[in-house]
Amino acid sequence: MNKITGVTELQRNFKRVFDEVTKGKASHILTRKSRPEAVLLPYEEYVRLTQLSDSEVAARFNRIAARMRSINAQFADEEVEADLVQATKALRKAKRSQAKPSHARRR
Questions:
Q1: Of 10, 45, 58, 72, whose CB is crowded by the most CB atoms within 10 A?
Q2: What is the CATH T-level fold of the domain 2-41, as seen in this structure?
């Protein structure tokens, strides 16, 4: 169960809130000026969410890699690598030109 707790209330009642989280397994949405800014949740829930997130990222990466293998199956590895090198050079050149000031200072 989620509870909404203001930062001032948290400061005044830290032990009670901490016990609710650790022993009662209640999550607290921490607010400042009535805006949610953080969440205090049981460690087990944090671990579960972290693992879930990691597994979702890995699964998405695997799907993208399989799609890229399928799309690039008709091209030789050397062709794909040459395209990547060319794209990297173009991107770096574009970033360098963006980093330069639009007008040069004269002394």
A1: 10
A2: YefM-like fold (3.40.1620)
